[in-house]
Design goal:
This protein is α+β, with helices and mostly antiparallel strands. It is built from seven helices and 15 strands. The chain has one domain: Penicillin V Acylase, Chain A (4-Layer Sandwich). It has a seven-stranded antiparallel beta sheet with strand order 3-4-5-6-7-8-9. The chain has a six-stranded antiparallel beta sheet with strand order 10-1-2-13-14-15. The radius of gyration is 19 Å and the shape is globular. The protein starts with a strand and ends in a 7-residue tail after the last strand.
Length: 333
């Protein structure tokens, strides 16, 4: 649950969403699929480690969409381990297909029911609808610190907006991976529009962004606490492991608390994960997702799984799952 990039800058796609899920690579996770009844209208992956089987990212046939990132707070030791943040996107996505609850109503219910006893999170969510006469419904962002609906941040409310969200509060500019990701997405979209790239080529460029690895190798004698600070620099996190990872909570790894700055040269992650060593007991980018919503309300959802059961690398021919559908009620105003 490391980075989400959202853009309205492409004229053919009113909403583009890119996501990397960073986790322990052997954490049991279901690949993206339409869920079982009564939630067969929901498309997304699921975390199988917790009984609630929450998700970090999903979209429904009616256009409801949610993406969650977590972050660690200093007082998080008091948070009950019984409550899973993955249940927060579930609450939106599993609304009945005929529900008319608005984004604001859901946020008000979420805040009033209380999220203070859940670990730090940011949720970007809403209902994707056809833009009409310059009116874009957009997405809202709420966190466990949001006091009321009036203080919610709204994004993707107009054309040519590109924003990023990672393991901190929205708008935290101290995360180089977010600043870099926003810039790269803007550049890729602009260049792609000029070339009039086909969707397949555009998606390839988006996965290139999600696979950009700027994380330096841990140096001999470098303290683990110093090295972890570099995770906030890289959009893609290659498998990092060892005893330090096994004894470090996922939230602390996601927080990437930085002790000193290290300048690195950009490098592309190796594309053939089949030859990578096992990810068991390691932490890194487990899944990557690209979602496109076209001007006709057609959804293209592509999930790339880099590590599967037990943290085993997934071969190139098996790692991608693609789903397509038309949003119900797209033209309804």
């Amino acid at each position: 649950m490391c980075i989400a990039l959202i853009s309205t800058a492409h004229p053919k796609y009113p909403l583009i969403l890119l996501s990397n899920r960073d986790e322990f690579l052997d954490r049991p996770t279901a690949p993206a699929a339409f869920w079982d009844a009564p939630n067969s209208h929901v498309l997304g992956g699921r975390d199988l480690q917790r009984p609630i089987q929450g998700t970090w990212l999903g979209i429904t046939k009616q256009g409801r969409i949610a993406v969650l990132t977590n972050f660690r707070e200093e007082d998080q030791g008091n948070i009950s381990a019984e409550k899973s943040r993955g249940g927060i996107p579930n609450a939106l996505l599993t609304l009945p297909p005929d529900s008319d609850e608005t984004t604001e109503q859901f946020a008000k219910r979420l805040i009033e029911e209380g999220v203070a006893d859940v670990g730090g999170f940011s949720l970007a969510f809403g209902r994707v609808r056809k833009p009409e006469k310059g009116r874009w419904e957009g997405l809202a962002i709420v966190s466990n610190r949001t006091p009321n609906v009036e203080d919610m941040t709204h994004v993707a409310t107009a054309p040519n907006q590109t924003v990023g969200l990672s393991n901190s509060l929205f708008g935290d500019s101290t995360w180089p991976k977010v600043v870099h990701g926003e810039r790269l997405l803007e550049e890729v979209i602009h260049s792609s529009v000029l070339r009039d790239d086909a969707q397949e080529k555009l998606v390839e460029h988006f996965f290139d962004i999600l696979s950009l690895d700027t994380l330096p190798k841990q140096q001999v004698g470098e303290e683990w606490t110093t090295f972890v600070g570099q995770l906030r620099r890289s959009i893609f996190v290659p498998a990092v492991g060892g005893k330090e990872v096994e004894t470090t909570p996922a939230d602390k790894l996601a927080a990437a608390e930085e002790d000193e700055e290290v300048l690195v040269q950009e490098r592309r992650v190796e594309r053939d994960t089949a030859e990578a060593e096992s990810g068991a007991g390691k932490y890194g980018t487990q899944k990557q997702t690209v979602i496109l919503v076209s001007t006709a309300g057609h959804v293209t959802y592509i999930e790339r799984t880099l590590y599967g059961d037990g943290g085993r690398p997934v071969g190139n021919s098996e790692r991608d799952k693609k789903y397509e559908f038309d949003i119900e009620g797209w033209d309804d105003i």
